Each structure stands twice: as structure tokens, then as C-alpha cells.
């Protein structure tokens, strides 16, 4: 909803940039307008989300006797428990700024800047080492469901694996040599 002409093709471009980095096409969301129920679930499921200042979010199913159970899954994993329950139990609209403070979106910008901001996310990510991003993103999501001790043990093993990678060698060498890294592609 509220998709200005051209935003879909820009969104596809951003997704392609992110996919080149080993990210899935669910990685970024651009939002103009209103995201309710499954729309809010999609935003919560994204790694990064950019919203226009006039964007609004809600899980309003409770208002019609239908609890937003599937949106609840993504929402409860991306905002605090209290924030998720407030959205789910009250079913009220949340402003873009409030969504940002809850952690539902990363950035809130003027409507005409949404696409540029999302493209900038993609550009910045595309400059990072591909395997390192893939290793890091996978580790991030995997450790979330682990007990704390297991998460640290897993993260330590991932760090060792990452340190042995050619990208780490290039990055550390570039840092020591005070030059920009030349990532293998």
C-alpha cells in the first residue's frame, strides 16, 4: 500500500544488492503507508527496515476477534516483550517514530528519502566482505535461540572460523598497512 511508482523496482534493486552479499530478499523493507497484521509481520521479519515519517504499523486483529497469531511470531522476536504485547493486545496504530524506538524499523525518513535510504543500506552492505557477512548473519540468528553459555561457545567457534578466512586476512592486512581492503569477489 502507498507504493509510489518505481519503488518496487528500487526495492528489487536493493534486494539484489543484498543478495549479492549473501543476504536473502527478505533483508530490507521499504515502507510508505500502513503495515497491519501480515504487513507488520513482514516488516518485523526483515533484517533492516526504512519507513517514511507518515508510515504506521499495527496488529489490529484483536479488534475484530482474530488475534494476530502469525504476526506475533516475528513481532515478539524483534521488539521487546512488553512492546509486542502492547501492539497485539491493544491493536492500535503505532507511528513510524514509535516503531523506530521499539526497534521495529531502523530508520525513519521523509517519504521522498525512503528509497534512497534503503539503497544506501544496500550500497554500504555491498562494500563489506561477502563471506564475513554470511558467516555473521547466520551466527547472529543461530545464537539467538541458544542458552547464554552455548551462544558464547558457538560465537567463539564462529570467530575462529572467520579469523582463518581469506577475508579476515585481507581486512587485518589492510588495517595494518593503512589501506582500503580489496575483498575477494
Features:
mainly alpha, 2-enoyl-CoA Hydratase, Chain A, domain 1, Lyase 2-enoyl-coa Hydratase, Chain  A, domain 2, 2 domains, 185 residues, 9 helices, 3-stranded parallel beta sheet, 6 strands, flat, 3-stranded mixed beta sheet
The low-pLDDT segments are 1-5, 21-26
Helix content: 55-70%
β content, as a range? 5-15%
The radius of gyration computed from the alpha-carbon positions, rounded to a whole number of angstroms, is 19 Å
CATH superfamily of the largest domain: 2-enoyl-CoA Hydratase, Chain A, domain 1
- Summed up, the domain count is 2
Number of H/I helices: 9
- Judging by the overall fold, what is the CATH architecture of the largest domain? Alpha-Beta Complex
Mean pLDDT over all positions: 87
Give the termini separation: 37 Å
CATH class of the largest domain: Alpha Beta
Largest sheet: 3 strands, parallel
CATH topology of the largest domain: 2-enoyl-CoA Hydratase, Chain A, domain 1
H/E series: HEEHEEHHEHEHHHH
Write the layout of secondary structure elements.
Layout: H1 7-20, E1 28-31, E2 34-36, H2 38-45, E3 48-52, E4 56-58, H3 69-76, H4 81-90, E5 94-95, H5 96-102, E6 107-109, H6 114-126, H7 130-144, H8 148-163, H9 166-177
Parallel strand pairs: 1-3, 2-4, 3-6
Antiparallel strand pairs: 4-5
Helix pairs in contact: 1-6, 2-3, 7-8
Question: How would you describe this protein?
Answer:
It is a single chain. The chain has helices spanning 7-20, 38-45, 69-76, 81-90, 96-102, 114-126, 130-144, 148-163, 166-177; strands at residues 28-31, 34-36, 48-52, 56-58, 94-95, 107-109. It is mainly α and 185 residues long. It has two domains: 7-126, 2-enoyl-CoA Hydratase, Chain A, domain 1, CATH 3.90.226.10; 130-177, Lyase 2-enoyl-coa Hydratase, Chain  A, domain 2 (Orthogonal Bundle). The protein has a three-stranded parallel sheet, with helices on both faces. The longest helix has 16 residues, at 148-163. It is flat.
Amino acid at each position: 500500500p502507498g507504493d509510489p511508482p518505481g519503488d518496487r523496482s528500487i526495492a528489487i534493486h536493493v534486494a539484489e544488492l543484498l543478495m549479492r552479499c549473501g543476504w536473502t530478499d527478505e533483508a530490507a523493507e521499504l515502507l510508505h503507508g500502513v503495515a497491519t497484521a501480515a504487513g507488520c509481520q513482514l516488516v518485523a521479519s526483515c533484517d533492516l527496515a526504512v519507513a517514511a515519517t507518515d508510515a504506521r504499523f499495527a496488529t489490529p486483529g484483536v479488534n475484530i476477534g482474530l488475534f494476530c497469531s502469525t504476526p506475533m511470531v516475528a513481532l515478539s522476536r524483534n521488539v521487546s516483550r512488553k512492546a509486542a504485547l502492547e501492539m497485539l493486545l491493544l491493536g492500535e496504530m503505532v507511528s513510524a517514530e514509535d516503531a523506530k524506538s521499539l526497534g521495529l524499523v531502523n530508520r525513519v525518513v521523509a517519504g521522498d528519502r525512503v528509497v534512497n535510504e534503503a539503497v544506501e543500506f544496500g550500497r554500504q552492505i555491498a562494500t563489506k566482505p561477502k563471506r564475513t557477512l554470511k558467516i555473521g548473519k547466520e551466527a547472529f540468528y543461530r545464537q539467538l535461540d541458544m542458552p547464554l553459555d552455548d551462544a558464547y561457545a558457538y560465537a567463539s567457534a564462529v570467530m575462529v572460523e572467520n579469523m582463518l578466512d581469506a577475508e579476515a586476512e585481507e581486512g587485518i592486512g589492510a588495517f595494518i598497512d593503512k589501506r582500503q581492503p580489496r575483498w575477494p569477489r
